[in-house]
Amino acid sequence: MNTIFRTFACTVALAVALPVAAQDQSPLSAAEFESYTTGKTLYFNAGGMAYGVEEYRPGRRVRWSFLDGRCKDGEWYPEGEQICFVYEDGTGPQCWTFFQGSNGLRARFMGDPAGSELYEARDTDEPMVCMGPDVGA
Known about the structure:
By secondary structure, the chain is of the alpha+beta class. Helices cover 18% and strands 42% of the residues. The protein is built from two helices and eight strands. The protein has an eight-stranded antiparallel barrel. The chain is globular, with a radius of gyration of 16 Å. The protein starts with a helix and ends in a 13-residue tail after the last strand.
């Protein structure tokens, strides 16, 4: 039983440490980001916890959700080494620097002194499930 616990603890420690492993890489260019993301739905974690999901569509269009069933559409554009997102609700631009490692994308938020960082938890080619506005209200 003790061996199983140690194996589990090591697995969790590695899963949390992996996003940090490739911090010396160069940021993705807009073309690299577009090539990697278009047609995918990516789930992101932060600090070992689920954070959100984004669906990347052709034409640099996106759909984001904080995993609460509410989605907002938007688009992205390059700004230097950053990828900036603007959403239909008027939030933005929100700019991130993306890096690609062996475990997927890492994203560092610009304008946050603490250096908020997200990392790709999984990807799928399935579309997101979004509830309509004010469902159940």
